[in-house]
């Protein structure tokens, strides 16, 4: 599931210059796929969860460490994490009682690359 | 309105390294503000509109040029454009009959900077 979604955020586009938001008008299909990823980021709880995972040295966070930071039930937290996973931003693994989450390598940087304008890449002469 | 929202996406953070998603866990307030921006991007029509504007040479697009690309009424298109404007991504000006839209300078690159991981900035030794 994650792999399929990941392709959306630039992995399979043909080069760094292409498939950017500011390169050419997006087609329907790509817009629909990318909108799912941004929709996953369009919630404060999910952004905080993703930030907790992305900023963790070592790269992995146990769900048991995330839940206490929120005034929400563990099933609700797990649901938000599932949406981030379906968007191809994170992945997880169960080990014993707990589930551990990490950011999929390159996912955030590919999304950043999609938003970066061609102008931003220009080096002053 | 745009100016207020724009601060959200990095303009007022203290330096390039800080305030990134992967630098440290986001606080409630910043997560709520950034979620609004990503929510604005979390819709295929809005992503296509933003892409049409961002990819236009010269930087400005008349609403009259955007509407025919969609099977939607002009009020619906205008509503989507309003949400992008409220997110601090675009601005507009009425000239005679039509309203012209452009991407706010730096808005996309600041959002890209927020998503970029510290690792992505590292130059191999």
TrEMBL record, chains A, B:
Taking the record's annotation, the residue ranges forming a coiled coil are: none
Q: Answer yes or no on keyword DNA damage.
A: no
Residues of the HTH arsR-type domain: 26-125
Q: Which Gene3D superfamilies match?
A: Winged helix-like DNA-binding domain superfamily/Winged helix DNA-binding domain
The entry's keywords: DNA-binding, Transcription, Transcription regulation
Pfam family of the protein (one): HTH_5
| Any one GO MF annotation of this record | DNA binding
User: What CDD domains does this protein map onto?
Assistant: HTH_ARSR (cd00090)
This chain's protein is named Metalloregulator ArsR/SmtB family transcription factor
Species assigned in the record: Streptomyces sp. NBC_00180
């Amino acid at each position: 599931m994650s792999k399929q979604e990941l392709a959306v955020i630039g992995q399979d586009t043909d080069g760094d210059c292409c498939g950017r938001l500011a390169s050419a008008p997006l087609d329907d299909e790509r817009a629909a796929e990318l909108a799912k990823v941004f929709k996953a980021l369009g919630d404060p709880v999910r952004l905080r969860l993703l930030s907790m995972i992305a900023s963790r040295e070592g790269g992995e966070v146990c769900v048991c460490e995330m839940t206490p930071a929120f005034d929400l039930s563990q099933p609700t937290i797990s649901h938000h994490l599932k949406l981030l996973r379906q968007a191809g931003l994170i992945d997880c693994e169960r080990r014993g009682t707990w589930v551990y989450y990490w950011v999929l390598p390159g996912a955030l940087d590919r999304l950043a690359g999609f938003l970066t304008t061609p102008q931003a890449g220009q080096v002053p002469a």
